[in-house]
Amino acid sequence: MTGGRRRGLEEHVDVEVQHAQQGGARIAVHDTDDLGRLSARAAAAAPADAVDGALRDAGAGHLDAAGRHAWLRLTWLRAQGPDEPRWLEGFAAMIAHATAQGWTSEDGTLVRAHLERG
Q1: Total Cβ atoms within 10 A of residue 45
Q2: N or C: which end of the chain has fewer CB within 10 A?
Q3: Which pLDDT does position 50 carry in this prediction?
């Protein structure tokens, strides 16, 4: 996502769901200082129900019915970043852009992120 931030900066927040073959999963958040793009990642072999379960167990959100997007809780996502005025402004700008694009839930508590498999 872009908007509200200066061009030329490489910006990206990445939410990674790491699934273990023997069961269980964990959520890792990378690049919280970069707010220009938001994505979720999971291994190609990770079953959709395991990815969904990991998001739900962490209180991070859930997958959509098709398994192509993660709906992330804004309160959870916000808590992953630093408590600094510049970051909070960037986060607000990212969410404002997502809202303008229709990428937030009707109640404003979730933001949609494309689920990348690989």
Answers
A1: 9
A2: C
A3: 87
